[in-house]
Amino acid sequence: MRGGRFDETGARTGGKRRVGVRSLVAIGLASLTTLLGLSAVPATPQAGAATGAVAVMPLGDSLTGGPGCWRAPLWTELQNSGYTDVDFVGTQPGGGCDLAVWDGDNEGHGGALAIDTADQNLLPGWLTASNPDIVMMNFGTNDIWNRRETADIITAFDTLVDQMRQHNASMRILVAQIAPVAPSGCDTCQPATIELNAAMEPWAATRTTSQSPITLVDHWTGWDPVADTIDGVHQSDSGNQKMAATWFTALTTALGAPVTSPSASASASASGSTPPVTSPSQSPTSTTQSCTATYVVTGSWQGGFQAEIEVTAGPAAIDAWTVAWTLAEDQSITQSWNATIVTSGTAVTATGVAWNRALPASATTSFGLIGTGGGAEPVAVPPVSCIAV
Predict the structure, then answer these.
(1) pLDDT, tens only, 332-344
(2) If DSSP states are collapsed to H, E and C, what string results for the chain?
(3) Which single residue of 61, 135, 187, 285 has CA 20 to 30 Å from 247?
């Protein structure tokens, strides 16, 4: 756009230099070094992943770097689910988010456009500094805000993917189909987002390879740009939870089975959510192989909720388990992890996956889900049953 452009804060920038009014507006969101430019690497590059760990680079703009704390609950859920060998990497620091300890490294740059990142050849330096195995890319919001053409954004994606593969021929690439936004003064943002997300489908299909697969990650579905953001763009607490859960499903699929057995955990709940409530399973009927299950509502918000179900084997080892419950009439399940979930009407069954299907005696695992439905009232906890074989 001639005469400058706008970033996620709504401030005008003066061309390709990333200084000026935006720096003054966004100074509270990141360090001055970050805001003055997407300079490729710091003077002392950070080391890549810890030895033996899988290096994962969250890449994008302020929706990746901050504000917004979706990387914190994602990291916590990975740890709680047994993915203790994951190392978030990037030249940008992270922290806070009401967690004393978590891995905040990332490559999220406030105001960044995919087109500029590609044209200015910024990514190769970041890749060299951090050496990722997997890239989680969420670009396009600022390009759309600045009325860049969809075809030009896709061309930039091509360049970025080429650069990733030049650095690592086996790079696993997760690409966000971006969430809807509703900033003031951008009546073209919504239709342009729909157009870009649709264009990603054939693009990913033609660019993916068996050696370096590209996976699209749907952040559009179920996203409310009013309830899930603080300003029509940046995530609120409920948005952080939704974004973390969406990335979790895609990332754990790319990672495969965890290196350690998933442990029971309670996910961070959305702001203003009701306290966790639980429902124990019915008493097991088997005197040999048996299991129990406990359903915990870990977060709720207007029109949605998050739950975790803990499964515990009885006094004997079990080869497999199935948990069953019934949804309320207005509920549906939109995402799940660490289990295969099948619904038929309101009836739900969940079975274990490869790494948590069989349990030693008295061992525990857990799986989680995000659902829609429910209003301002606390989400009802359904009775659950567990059958072991």
Answers:
(1) 998 888 888 988 8
(2) CCCCEECCCCCEECCCCCCCHHHHHHCCCCCHHHHHCCCCCCCCCCCCCCCCCEEEEEEECHHHHCCCCCHHHHHHHHHHCCCCCEEECCCECCCCCCCCCCCCCEEECCCCCHHHHHHCCCHHHHHHHHCCCEEEEECCHHHHHCCCCHHHHHHHHHHHHHHHHHHCCCCEEEEEECCCCCCCCCCCHHHHHHHHHHHHHHHHHHHCCCCCCEEEEECCCCCCCCCCECCCCCECHHHHHHHHHHHHHHHHHHHCCCCCCCCCCCCCCCCCCCCCEEEEECCCCCCCCCEEEEEEEEEEECCEEEEEEEEEECCCCECCEEEEEECCCCCEEEEEECCEEEEECCEEEEECCCCCCCECCCCEEEEEEEEECCCCCCCCCCCEEEEEC
(3) 187
